[in-house]
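ok so for the tutorial part 2 we go from a plain amino acid sequence to predicted structure tokens. step 1 is just haveing the sequence, like this:
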Amino acid sequence: MKTQSRYQKVLNFLKRASLRLIILALVLAIAGTVYQTAATEADRRNFPPPGVLVNVDGYKMHIHCMGEGNPTIILDHVGGGSSVDWALIQPKLAEHTRVCAYDRAGFGWSDFSPAPRTLEQQVRELHQLLRGANEQGPYLLVGHSYGARVSRVYAATYPDEVTGMVLMDAGILYDDPRYPPELHSQAESEDQMLRVARWLAPFGLTRLMQPLMVSPTFDLPEEARRESASFAASSRFFQAVLAQSDSMQIVLEEEHAITSLGDIPLLVLTANEPDDAIRSVWSQANIEMASLSTNGSYTIVDGATHMSLAYRESDAQVCTAGILDVLTAARTATSQHP
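step 2 — the prediction. this is what the tokens look like for a chain of 338 residues:
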């Protein structure tokens, strides 16, 4: 009887302890949800969109334009970035022509869209966005990393609208057999972390951990850094990044289908740091991408990393100069073939 009584006491203690832990977890989850909701609302008030919001398939997409002239330069950000990535580059370009930076669905100030993130879908959204914002072509497309995927397919889909292109560090094709195994292991690790973060974000945990994370913002203005941090703390951000990842196999097939961009002025800008096996293949793939156009060329931005091309002042200046060179070439070609 004593043994049974002792067992019953232990069992009752474990039940009470489990109940308390469940209650504590529920209280923390509710508190975290309230915190995340309040912080997200505060971000919306503190960082209003600088551009306009356009209805695209029932969702709002953001585009921010400045300057006058043609062709209009369209800036497309990296996979997890936003239109504020171009803070060092866009104002300089706007001294010479019209230039628009936009947020793909789910990033920056744009709503998340449940439509699969194929390049066909994203090109269609960009096309509707430009029409809805009344931003007329022709366009000079500038894509950084993932944004370069969208730029290439847009040019192939609407060749009469595109008069030039700049691709910044575009050459990551995960099915390229030249890449070492480390690329795939890194991608898998990042994907796993993002999936965990996707579930933590609604409870405010990713927001709380932001100060511990290293963010390569280099020389971006303070306001742009704060805006980027607010986007990366939202649940919407992780939905968007994972949606991109889930469609990657189709995206790669769409990319491989683009074998020629005709003779449009094309410049490929490539970083060369860090000095490792992945970067070596990546830079070579960038160089090869210049052959998509018979009027293509490439520039190696010495000492630049993937993100510093847009985020570090000195590297951004090189990229800006390259874009302006393509702008001049596009204008020359247009004047010769009106």
